Amino acid sequence: MNQAHKYVYMFSEGNGAMRNLLGGKGANLAEMSNLGLPIPQGFIVSTEACTNYNTSGRVLDNAIREQIDIAMVRLEYMTEKRFGCKENPLLVSVRSGSRASMPGMMDTVLNLGLNDKSVEAMAKNIDTRFAYDSYRRFIMMFADVVMDVDKHLFENAFRQYKEKAGVTQDVELNGEQMIEIAEMFKGIYKDAKGEDFPMEAKEQLYEAIQAVFRSWDNERAFIYRRRHDIPYSWGTAVNVQSMVFGNMGDDSGTGVAFSRDPSTGENAIFGEYLMNAQGEDVVAGIRTPLSIDCLKDEKPEVYAEFIALAKKLEAHYKDMQDMEFTVERGKLYFLQTRNGKRTAQAALRIAIDMVNEGTLTVEEALLMVDPRSLDQLLHPIFDPEALNNADIIGKALPASPGAASGRVYFTSQDAMDAHARGEEVILVRNETSPEDIGGMQVAKGILTAKGGATCHAAIVARDMGTPCICGCEDIKLDYTTKQFTLGGMTFKEGDYISMDGSTGKVFGEQLPTVESKITNDFAIFMKWADEHRTMEVRTNTDTPDSAARALEFGAQGIGLTRSEHMFFEADRIPKMQRMILSETKEERLAACDELRAFQKADYLAIFNVMCGLPVTIRLLDPPLHEFLPKSDAEFETLAKEAGKTVEELKKQSAMLHEVNPMMGHRGLRLAVSYPELAEMQTRAIIEAAIEAQKTGTRVRPEIMIPLTFDVKEYKFVKDVVEETAKAILADYDGTLEYMIGTMIEIPRACLMADEIAQEAEFFSFGTNDLTQMTYGLSRDDAGKFINDYIEHNIFETDPTIKLDQKGVGELMKTAIARGRKARPNIKLGICGEHGGDPSSIEFCQKLGLDYVSCSPFRVPIARLAAAQAAIAQKRGEDVANKG
Amino acid sequence: MNQAHKYVYMFSEGNGAMRNLLGGKGANLAEMSNLGLPIPQGFIVSTEACTNYNTSGRVLDNAIREQIDIAMVRLEYMTEKRFGCKENPLLVSVRSGSRASMPGMMDTVLNLGLNDKSVEAMAKNIDTRFAYDSYRRFIMMFADVVMDVDKHLFENAFRQYKEKAGVTQDVELNGEQMIEIAEMFKGIYKDAKGEDFPMEAKEQLYEAIQAVFRSWDNERAFIYRRRHDIPYSWGTAVNVQSMVFGNMGDDSGTGVAFSRDPSTGENAIFGEYLMNAQGEDVVAGIRTPLSIDCLKDEKPEVYAEFIALAKKLEAHYKDMQDMEFTVERGKLYFLQTRNGKRTAQAALRIAIDMVNEGTLTVEEALLMVDPRSLDQLLHPIFDPEALNNADIIGKALPASPGAASGRVYFTSQDAMDAHARGEEVILVRNETSPEDIGGMQVAKGILTAKGGATCHAAIVARDMGTPCICGCEDIKLDYTTKQFTLGGMTFKEGDYISMDGSTGKVFGEQLPTVESKITNDFAIFMKWADEHRTMEVRTNTDTPDSAARALEFGAQGIGLTRSEHMFFEADRIPKMQRMILSETKEERLAACDELRAFQKADYLAIFNVMCGLPVTIRLLDPPLHEFLPKSDAEFETLAKEAGKTVEELKKQSAMLHEVNPMMGHRGLRLAVSYPELAEMQTRAIIEAAIEAQKTGTRVRPEIMIPLTFDVKEYKFVKDVVEETAKAILADYDGTLEYMIGTMIEIPRACLMADEIAQEAEFFSFGTNDLTQMTYGLSRDDAGKFINDYIEHNIFETDPTIKLDQKGVGELMKTAIARGRKARPNIKLGICGEHGGDPSSIEFCQKLGLDYVSCSPFRVPIARLAAAQAAIAQKRGEDVANKG
Q1: Which one in A861, B331, B665, B771 has a CA-CA gap of 20 to 30 Å to A386?
Q2: Phi first, then psi: what are they for A277, rounded to 5°?
Q3: Which H or E element spans position B151?
Q4: From A479, which residue of chain B is nearest by alpha-carbon distance?
């Protein structure tokens, strides 16, 4: 016996659990085979063969060829047909099938095995026209897909032939004409390739299989994988299946059906059927398919069999099925089944119904819904009809979901003015900074030319629930002339565009939007999720309004309040600027005192909204120069207020300039230099907390010190905070529950976590910065080259979106182990954007974090992802649909 | 028995090895006591007591007080005197004494124990004038040092008394007058403090001890520790020693002597002596001391005893001794001995002599010299006399050693123009960037207002051997008016300043410099070092000239050639700019081709200089926008050359702007986006290598890929390099030995080292960037707040200068362990600036690196430090003098 590695599996040798090896389609065909369903038999060339092919110089290994040959002999035996023979020829389809469904992304060849001899047999057994029609289709498909011959050569020749013959419809051509066309196509092939069309069926098969392997690398597949986070390394399997024909007359046909309605989730067969046709006719839209119900009337016994088997499949897979079937001369065949794609609304309905029907347990139902799909339920969407007809002028990173239409403005001030005039505004900028907050607040959508998934615009937009697209590098924006170009069009200030933050698409016109409907199912389902998860879900938010929204979405506290965001409002920023540009400690203290009043009011409002839930407040984090005036007008205003000259202010402002602000004078480094800042913020927090408690609101502030890399600097700032708090609380009758802890966002802090934990009551992983520093990768600048990394398969996923479990994750593990060693009950959370990403949440569950925190609109996603992670952990498995 | 922790030690209870606990002075007194030398007896309050005092709210613990009391009773018994009594009173000195010698940095109180009663006894036993002179000195010293009373109050009153009494010299005052002055001083004390001068000797003692503890925190001590890298946590011990008096008449005296000449190292007693005087008279310069030889003539028997004991001490400590002694009424007392400070020249001479004398082994001699002192031997210094009279107008980070005088210029161009006119130039800038290279090359010295020890200016200056001072934040520089202010003075373009890159001092005038002399001793000593070290020492250099200098200094190869530095010369930069601003790959390839010719010539020149030694060439590293034109004039020049408009170029240039360039599009990320860059550089390297070999020069290029964080990106670029090299070598008859490896400078690379090592033949730790990323601390921006960190004792040393062994070091250990696991023979080196720092070099030895690489002038330091580290490792100890 040949002991070579097994690369080829008959359907009967596999099963549904072998998805990684056989691909989704192959595994399901194997499973259907085992269930005894009527399927055309065949075999699968595994994903390992694909990897072998792609990593060994794109040569099909001899061992693989041999195994294919043997499988083909077995298939001939099963079908009682002979491959490539002139008697009773076996024809096969050759289709891709990867682990994850990638519909239409890769290549397929039908009717393979036809050649000048077998086509004759087919003509004799069935029908001449049918046989040669199939042959000419095969020649063209094989030439196009496998041999890279331009298919327009065939299409043009076919059109000319029809003109000459005086016919308009294909069906008007008779058998003789089809023979001529097939001959003509072989000629075109020979002209293009310099050799005859291959008559050897095995050669056709080898070539077709390799073409499918190569199609894993085509651009469609590349884009699809990227959007769906499918790793390049998975590869695709190839399914070789004996052909059945739905176009053998009126007792034949083909169809596609879902076992439930994929839009609404209603429990009723939903699908389409076409008499006397092949699958491609349905797809090509040459004839309009009929509702599946027609089959019921025309072929009641076939319909009954189909319904029974569909229910059997659904019950077997415990999920709604998307099935392709063919009826050949009255006999039903299943060509494929898979778990069907569905809207979020349908997903919830189906999950709940299946629990009620007793098909699924609640745990199974929870695992069935992709958490990311919940996003659809919370944001407005474009009217689907308008969307179908709209031209996409650009596409970039979908940074914050939802659809928006409006007039473009390029500065925060212009956006606010337009909003005041009642216009709907899309803010378009190269990038945003905290000073743009006013314009961002009034915008219906935000579009930036630069930045990645965790750039300023993305973070703020997600917090506000505003649709946002980032890193649209094709935009050429000119602030001076107030216009930009994209997709060959120029947009002036005030022109309309539309944008879909869920897909990253930009449209050059106004499109109508509609609100998504939230059903009662959502509440039921999320309640189940909450009952099953073990991690808390908190939110990252800076305002009482968005805190209130997060509460509605189920947040159990605030994991991150960026106190600095409160300083950008028009009445506060000059005071902040005065504070920063103070030349003496006295000046600074006076400015601090004014700011404190604002801060206190902000915190009080948030405490009142959160009403007893924990509220984590991060002390001032960004480099001070972010707050400084930019324009001459702003400098002049400030000069008047501060009683200084513009020159003085500009000089001082220039001194604050930093080469790498992300690694500069920020975070607790500011508090080390100016302890009065930490003191001021602590006073505001504690005084607000006392005031809230006096009116009967329970308050649980958690004061968070950012950017720690060493216990000594942490302790220095902690001491300032603690002493300030104690001094205020000394005069207070009641007790106040509060904690002081730190963000863990610098690699060194992870390594020093044992020392830091001796002083810190909690750790909150700031995985945005931790990822930046661990990779040495600025999130503001990576947009420029991250595409190159994805194109070259260096990044399978963007680590700013999906937590890098190997590198950053190891640092987190180290931090947790060392932190817990020093303080066993230390509270652990995550407040980076990864806290809203399902695969990262699953990792957090494995790490044993107490909570994840994310932007308000991601809270439901996090709740479900946390439930799935907890269930998977209990079962000792990974979550399947984490993407 | 009281089992309390022991805080107080009689001299007889200690020994010389107890330096950490007893301080250097205390340990040496204990050792001398054990050796039977004549010393005034006493006891030591340990450094642990200091830590206890400073960390427990500055209260002297009762247990410590009790132990002091007991020690004092024992001292009374030994001296047969009574502390604070009117009969035969015991007087003591109270002095600081930390682990490391910190001469004059902390406080001392003499004659303690004097009060109204004991002074009477002293007057009766010795002399009234002597007694009350001592008393008034004690009152003033105690008031000043211990009780924080302004000593000018005493000095002014004393001056007025002398005026009134009509005398000019202190010695003209008689005993009665001294009594009056002492009374007057007690009155001043009472006015200032609101209470009587303390008459209780024990109270005086407790207060004085606490004052010494507190003096660990004074500013002088702070600055000294910082300069000498002495950790704050060490604390100081306090020595309480019975007084002896050199001012008891002509058979008394006091002196200071070295057992060898501290300037030249000559083996001859060197010192000064003053008859009938106390130590402070010598220091105060009231009387001019005599050469120690005078003692030989005047008190031959005392001199002989002194010489014998000095030799005994030197032999005992195996090092040149710096001794204080007093002769009281003909009896010799040693007050202190310590290893003497010396010039580098003397250090080498003494070490070599002691080996020749048989006192030391070569290993011991190697361990005795501080590697950092070798710097003195290589750079010019200021004429010491001129230096004494010069005013220091500013002081900042000594970034590259050596003295320089010249006229100030503020732009690279102005500096080059002035140099062309024959002027000596000091380049003064806020900070430098690669485009300043021209001005830096012609400058005698470089002074910057910003930046730390590893900023651009510092690195380049060290490479060029040019004196450099960085981060002089007090400089207010105005480029438009071409002037700056510092230390209250304004300097216009063309004005003279002087600067000492070894001390960080800036002078507002022209000072003459002299060359240091290198003796034959240097060669002998460095040969010994080379024989003892196990690590290779390489150099970081970019030019053939500086490579040649590094060879003279003993470099065994190049550990880092920054290929980009070659692009900044006037004839190359426009080509580089064209390459960067190319809009198509074709344009870029054409520009690359021109650059390749330059690169090849550069590499060839370096290969020829290095002649068979390994040369590590790092591929292009900095963000591209560093190379772009800055001024309008430069843009116009480039526009003409490139056939584009200034506007186009400015737009493209703006697109290259980065928010955090240190974490942006740089390093191998450039090669991922533009593989043609790596290809061009590889071609230049390999072609140059072949050309060199053809002329008979052996060549060993090591191609280094910078900024790796993942094996996949490394492999992508490595494949480009390897394929390019193989293609060229395919046409070459001979064989070329070359390696491809990577810098390890990103935290994630350390964690992924096992995967990376599968593809990389060597690792070179880029600890500058690794420190930046591990701390999240930009070296260009840290200057602003790093002082706050040192002042608050958060940083004991600056991690950009001295490797952070805990955090960064752990990552290095991880990288080495994982790298070796994957590739056991992987070559390991360091090319960050830490490669020239002795304590970091010792750490590298422990890590088992194959080589360290540093700037040319640091090569001798590294050679000695590596030898010391190897010896210490063999002995299983740490190097003592690593600072």
Answers
A1: A861
A2: -150, 160
A3: helix B151-165
A4: B651
Q: What is the pLDDT of residues A715-730, one digit of tens each?
A: 999 999 999 999 999 9
Residue B862, both tokens: 């590294």
Residue A811 to chain B, least CA–CA distance (Å): 9
Classify residue A698 as exposed, middle or buried by CB count within 10 Å of its CB (0-12, 13-18, 19+): middle
Distance of alpha carbon A608 from alpha carbon A610, whole angstroms: 6
Q: What is the DSSP string of B812-849?
A: HHHHHHHHHHH-TT-EEEE-SGGGG-HHHHHHHHHHT-
The answer, for A669 touching chain B at a CB cutoff of 8 Å, is yes
Provide the pLDDT for residue B313: 96
Beta strands A851-854; A536-540: pairing state: parallel
Q: What is the pLDDT of residue B287?
A: 62
Q: Which pLDDT score is estimated for A605?
A: 96
Please give the pLDDT value at position B882: 43
Q: Which of A774, A782, A232, A790 is nearest to B716 (CA)?
A: A790
Q: CB of B454 within 8 A of CB of B431? A: no
> Could you list the active site residues of B?
456, 831
Closest-CA distance, A771 to chain B, in angstroms, reads 9
Q: Which residues of B touch A807 (CB under 8 A)?
A: 709-710, 747-748, 751-752
User: Within an 8 Å CB–CB cutoff, is residue B281 touching chain A?
Assistant: no
Q: Residue A883: pLDDT above 50?
A: no
Contact B672 A777 (CB under 8 A): no
Average pLDDT, chain B: 90
Distance, in Å, from the CA atom of A106 to the CA atom of A124, rounded to the nearest integer, reads 34
DSSP symbol at B327: E
- The full length of chain B comes to 883
pLDDT band at A105 (very low <50, low <70, confident <90, very high): low
How far is it, in rounded angstroms, from Cα A843 to Cα A861?
15
B126 has a pLDDT exceeding 50: yes
- Between helices A838-847 and A808-822, what is the axis angle to 10°? 30
- The closest of B797, B792, B808, B806 to B231, measured between CA atoms, is B797
The CA radius of gyration of chain A, in Å to the nearest whole number, is 32
Q: ∠ CA(A453), CA(A455), CA(A459), 5° rounding?
A: 80
Strand partners, B562: B618
For residue A880, pLDDT beyond 80: no
Q: B48: which 2 tokens?
A: 């642990």
What CA–CA distance (Å, rounded) separates A743 from A706? 5
Instruction: Return the beta strands (E) in A430-573 as ranges.
Output: 445-448, 468-470, 476-478, 483-486, 489-492, 496-500, 505-507, 513-514, 536-540, 558-562
- Pairing between strand B700-705 and B614-618? parallel
A379 tagged catalytic:
no
Pull the structure tokens for residue B569. 């010369």
**Shortest alpha-carbon distance between residue A249 and chain B (Å):** 55
Tell me how far apart the alpha carbons of residues B565 and A738 are, in angstroms, rounded to a whole number: 54
Asked whether the CA dihedral B564, B567, B573, B577 is positive or negative, the reply is negative
d(Cα A621, Cα A624) in Å, to the nearest integer? 9
Residue at token pair 């990897």: A51
Q: What is the Cα–Cα distance from A387 to A433, expressed in whole angstroms?
A: 31
How confident is the model over B110-127, as a mean pLDDT? 91
Predicted-assembly ipTM surpassing the 0.85 threshold: no
Could you give the C-alpha distances from B677 to B19, B599, B649, B673, in angstroms and in order? 57, 12, 20, 9
B574 and B643 Cβ atoms separated by less than 8 Å: no
- Of the candidates A700, A703, A709, the one whose C-alpha atom is nearest the C-alpha of residue A613 is A700
Nearest to B831 by CA among B706, B670, B653, B650: B706
Beta strands (DSSP E) in A689-846 are: 700-705, 739-744, 762-765, 827-830
